[in-house]
Amino acid sequence: MTEEGNSEFVKTGPTTIAGLYLRRYWQPISLSRDIRRGHAVRVRIMSEDFTLYRDEAGAAHVVGPRCPHRNALLSLGPVKGDTIACAYHGWRFAPSGQCVEQPAEPRPFCDKIRVASYPTIEAVGLIFVYLGPSPAPALPKWPDVGDFPYRHRIDCNYFQSAENIVDDVHLMFAHRNSLLSTSNRMGIPQVSASETAFGFTLELRHQQSTEKNHFIMPNACYLVDRHSWGTFRILFFYVPIDDTHHNHFFSLSLRPRVIGRLMSMLARRRNTDEWYTRAATKVLSGKRSMRRVFSPRLQDTVMCMSQGEIVDRNLEHLGSTDAGVILLRQIWKRELRRFAEGEPNIKYQGFATDLANLINQAG
Predict the structure, then answer these.
(1) pLDDT of 182
(2) What is the chain's mean pLDDT, rounded?
(3) Where does the pLDDT of residue 86 fall: very low under 50, low under 70, confident under 90, or very high at 90 and above?
(4) Does some domain include residue 112?
(5) 183 and 69 within one domain
(6) DSSP state, 140?
(7) pLDDT more than 70, % of the chain
C-alpha cells in the first residue's frame, strides 16, 4: 500500500476526501449523560472544534466554536432557554445559529450575524451530529442497545480501531487473560467476509458456533458476544478527534442486566481519557507488563497505540484470517474514489431506516 493509498482514509480534516465523506454520516460526538441541562462544552471531531450545549428544556444542540464578535469560545458562556450567550460581550445565539441579542449594540445589527449550526439527535445513549451538506439523511435505526453507553480516547488514528474490530482472531491472543476469555469467540476461527447493504459481515466459524461481526460503513460495527454467564449486544463507533487521536464510543445491552449496571457504575467513577492514556503509556514504555493488563478495552488500546500514531501499512504481511481488514480497506478505497469522482449518491446512506432489520437478515 503506497503512502498515498494509506492516507486516503486516515486523514479526516475538513478539506480531505475522507473527512468530507465521513461528514456525510451522523457521528457520535458525546455521551448523553456527559452534558447536563444548561451547560455547554467544547468538543473536537475530525480536526474541527464545535460547541455542544444542552438547553434548559433538555435538548442538545451543536453550533460553531466561537462568537463572531471577538472570536471568544462560546462554550464558556451561559445557556438560557434554548440559547447560548458569549461570556465576553453577551451576544446570544439560537439553536439555528442566528444571533438574537447584542446587549451593547442597536437591534438591526444582530439580524445580520449568525454562527454555523448542525443537526443534532440523541439515540442509544449518545449525541449524534451531522456535519455535511443539507439536507441531513435520516438517522439510522440502530439495533436495540443503549443500556450502557461508554466512551474513551485512544491516542492513534481512528482507522486502527476500525481494523481491530474486524480482526477477531486477536481475541485468542490479546484477550485470553480478560473478561472475554469466556466468549464463544475465543479460539482460532475460519474467517470469511462478504459485502452487505450496510457494509460487510465478517463470519467466524468455530468448532461449536459461528459468530459474526457486522461492519457498518463508514466507521461503526455491531456484534453479539455470548458467554456462559450472559450475552452482550454492542454497537461500536470509531470517531476521529484529529488524525492521531480518536474517540472509541460504544453502546451495549447485556443480559443479565445486573452486570451491565455494575459496569456502568465503575465506568462513571473513572476519568477514562486520563486513565487509559496513563495506563497504556505505562505498558508501552515497559513500566507495566502486558501480562498484568486484564481490561479488554485497555488491551485493545495498547495494541492499537503500539502500531504508531498512524500505522505504516506498507510494513504489513496480511494473511487469510485478515479477510475483514482487507475487505474494509477495499470498500473504503472504492467508496472514496467514487465520492472523489463526484458520484451523487452516497451508497451506504440508503440503509438509514432499515439498518436494524438488515443486520438481522445478515444473521
Answers:
(1) 84
(2) 91
(3) very high
(4) yes
(5) no
(6) P
(7) 93
Q: Is the pLDDT of residue 3 over 60?
A: no
Mapping DSSP to helix (H, G, I), strand (E, B) and coil, where does residue 359 land?
helix
Same domain, 175 and 39: no
CA separation for the pair 214, 187 (Å, rounded)? 19
Residue 246, Cβ density class (10 Å: 0-12 exposed, 13-18 middle, ≥19 buried)? buried
From the number of C-beta atoms within 10 Å of its C-beta (0-12, 13-18, 19+), residue 104 rates as exposed
Q: What are phi and psi of 216, to 5 degrees?
A: -105, 110
- Do 232 and 300 have their domain in common? yes
Q: What is the mean pLDDT of residues 112-119?
A: 97
Q: Given a cut of 80, is residue 4 above it in pLDDT?
A: no
What is the distance between the alpha carbons of residues 153 and 31, in angstroms, rounded to a whole number? 13
In 3-state terms, what secondary structure has residue 116? coil
AA identity, residue 309: E
Could you give the number of structural domains in the chain? Answer: 2
**pLDDT at residue 267 greater than cutoff 70:** no
Question: Once rounded to an integer, what is the mean pLDDT over residues 42-61?
Answer: 98
If you count DSSP H runs as helices and E runs as strands, how many of each does the chain have, helices first? 10, 18
- Helix boundaries (H) for 60-217: 107-110, 158-165, 171-174
Nearest to 20 by CA among 265, 342, 298, 259: 342
Helix (H, G, I), strand (E, B) or coil at 33: helix
62, 157: one domain = no
Say how far apart CA 69 and CA 102 lie, in whole Å.
10
Domain of 329 in residue numbering reads as 148-361
Instruction: Say whether both 156 and 95 belong to one domain.
Output: no
**Burial tier of 114 (Cβ tally within 10 Å: 0-12, 13-18, 19+):** middle
Same domain, 188 and 261: yes
- Reported as a single tens digit per residue, the pLDDT across 130-164 is 999 999 999 999 988 988 899 999 999 999 999 99
CA triple 275-277-282, angle to 5 deg? 95
Residue ranges of alpha helices (H) inside 308-354 are: 323-340
Amino acid at 86: C
Together in a domain, 122 and 188: no
Q: What is the pLDDT of residue 347?
A: 78
pLDDT at residue 348 in the model: 77
Q: Among the residues of 187-317, which ranges form H helices?
A: 257-268, 272-284, 296-306
